[in-house]
Amino acid sequence: MKNLLYATLVAMLPFFAWAQNSVTGKVTDNSQNALPGATIKIKNQRTAVLSDANGNFTLGNLARGRYTIVVSYVGYKSQEKSIDLSQNISLNFSLEQQSFLADEVVVSATRASKNAATTYRNLDKEELAKNNLGQDLPYLLNQTPSVVVSSDAGTGIGYTGLRIRGSDATRINVTLNGIPLNDAESQGSFFINLPDLASSVDNIQIQRGVGTSTNGAGAFGGSLNIQTTTRRDSAYAELNNTYGSYDTWKNTVSVGSGLINNKFTFDGRLSRIKSDGYVDRAFSNLKSFFISGAYYGKKDILRANVFSGSEKTYQAWNGVGEETLKTDRTHNDFTYDNQTDNYQQDHYQLFYTRNITSQLVANAALHYTYGRGYYEEYKENQSLAKYKIPAVVLGEVTQDASDLVRRLWLDNDFYGVTYSLNYTPKNNLNFVLGGAYNEYKGRHFDEVVWAQFANYDGSESIRHRYDDNDAFKSDFNIFGRANYQIGQFNLFGDLQYRRVYYSYFGIDPNGTPAQQNATLNFFNPKAGLTYNLSEKSNVYASVAVGNKEPNRRDFTDSNINSRPKSENLTDVEAGYRTQFSNVSLGVNGFAMFYKDQLINTGKLNDVGGQTRQNVPDSYRAGIEVDGKWQILKNLSWAATATLSRNKIKDFAEYIYDENPAAFTSVMVNNYKNTTIAFSPSIIASSEINYNVLPNASIALLSKYVGKQYLDNTSADSRTLSSFFVNDIRLSYNTPLAGIKNVGLSLLVNNVFSTLYESNGGTYPYLYDGTLDRFNYYYPQATRNFLLSLNVKF
């Protein structure tokens, strides 16, 4: 209760303050024409204001001191002016039109605009860099609304998880420069395959709920729209090295040519991350590179990206059993030396943007991703027949079971094209037509590489392939969106059609393994309305429909008659946003109504595999607060809070008897109005930042996550306890001896060594009619640190 009270107070402190001075002015172009909607902000602060219809702006309530004012406007070069503020002053800006297109047009078709009736948060490169000391990308998003992160190894390095509003990674749409990142079959996004991606990211937009139309799998919890390296006019080089607890290392080298002959840029990055992990043997060895080259013409941009990541990770997938957790929080069930996951993923992207007329901009992209790898595991006392290995006769004893080592392989290709057309016939009217066509080819095959007793059909090969099947998936979508400004009102409509074809090796209606296929068609309409109360505040409301196909296991573990239905979501959002010189605040209410949501119920298929089942009605509803207060020139406070209800109206849980003689025996429990698993009713975060000196700061980062249920039964015996965790970040930056910047950062995670688990699971079973349940958890690291040295040339 103390933690809850503290978190609530932190999240609900008042968002207003008084200061003495203001900066007023006007933003125009070189011909002195007003530029309405220009962004005026104080450098290194998140708050900003927009110029009004006449180009006028006011930055009020500013304490005395030195400020750098930055003004930006789409299609114009940004401008900075430094001032010493001791009284009210007037400061005008005249912006020069760019002779080139901005990289932002590449992702604009799938993003929400400033006044859109959509719930979103933008993160820029500077904000990401503050905490980018080696942890995976989900951990850099931990201070954003409704987000909960977890780590198998306990340190935020290796396999990590991300939930938004309780929805897991399979329901969060992720795009890189508008190109889908989610795996076509499992539908998850595995950032472990792209280690240190954040070091090549320019900005991210996080949309919560269905959001705007995008490419790839349906967005049921939210979307991450990631844009990688954009144009930098000056040459640079950067060295970033981190050392931390559990022998953690991060080494990054980044270089860029700047603008060559006013036309070309080249950027590159090479990274290595390694860590032993908090959990026993849960090491990670990660490597990656990123290369980008671009041509900027007066009316077009051509950019090519090539990047790759490889990982070798010791498995910590089983978590720690409830009883073991009491005595050994770092326990790992696996002891085999090479119980590892091994994977490499290569990405190739080619973008072309053309300013056809002053009113029409076209984008097109080609992409190809090649992934391959396996995980290796030791299995005890396995039936040889299961692996298609003949029994072995040793003297007079027939061995039909054996300890063995197996590798489960995945080799896949993903390729396609994305496109968009942006037509702006008038300043108050905008049309976007976009879409994509992608194909996926997945080859799944499994091998035994060692067995205590084995014949391998007389073959001398160490590898015995016992399973081999292929999958093919095509994904086509097209969407159109229009925005229309009428006075103080902004209206938008968004229509998307998506067609999915999936061919896979599954089960036919007779229960025989065979190649199967499915074709699914989805229509996803969206509409919204924004009313501008002033140039600084607006209210909005929207309704959006999303549809999502089942994943690979849902298909392969069922036949055409038992196959689960696609999921459907109607998402209603409404909110208020305001932005002043020292305060920004957003309050959003959401109601997400699911039809046929897929959940785990314990039900098994014909061969004893777990299958998800549709539940007719379920919902998530709540309110989110996201704000920042610049209390003083050197003191700021940002906070978020989410309060929600997440309910399943009714479902049946199936529990089977594990005694082989009684396997067909099943217990069925019926539940009503239960809480959706892993959906806390309270999530809150806080970041208090104090600039001790102009170039030195200290920050306290806090996170509170309420109680979560491990399954959908709302049983208190199967929960993740609420937790309240605090981190401290120290940073110091200074130019030194001709070096642009030398930066030191120290991040102390979980500074009070709170014992907590952020993820887990549960498994019910019967044996001879007796019910038992096994709970397991993923413990997170106690106090640990990351120390970073950053040098920029």
Structure description:
Residues 1-19 form the signal peptide. The chain folds into 2 domains: 15-97, Carboxypeptidase-like, regulatory domain (Immunoglobulin-like, Sandwich), CATH 2.60.40.1120; 228-792, Beta Barrel (Maltoporin, Chain A). The protein has 5 helices and 45 strands. The strands form 8 sheets. It has a 22-stranded antiparallel barrel. The two termini are 49 Å apart. The chain is mainly beta and 793 residues long. A hairpin with a 2-residue loop joins strand 24 (392-394) and strand 25 (397-399).
Strand content: over 45%
Please report the total strand number as a whole number: 45
Q: Helicity level, as a percent range? A: under 10%
What is the overall pLDDT average? 91
**Straight-line N-to-C gap:** 49 Å
Under CATH, the homologous superfamily of the largest domain reads TonB-dependent receptor, beta-barrel domain
The CATH architecture classification of the largest domain is Beta Barrel
Summed up, the helix count is 5
Give the overall shape, derived from the CA principal axes. Answer: globular
Output the CATH class name of the largest domain.
Mainly Beta
Class by alpha and beta content: mainly beta
Largest sheet, if any?
22 strands, antiparallel, barrel
What number of structural domains do the residues give? 2
CATH-derived topology of the largest domain: Maltoporin, Chain A
Measured on Cα atoms, how large is the radius of gyration? 27 Å
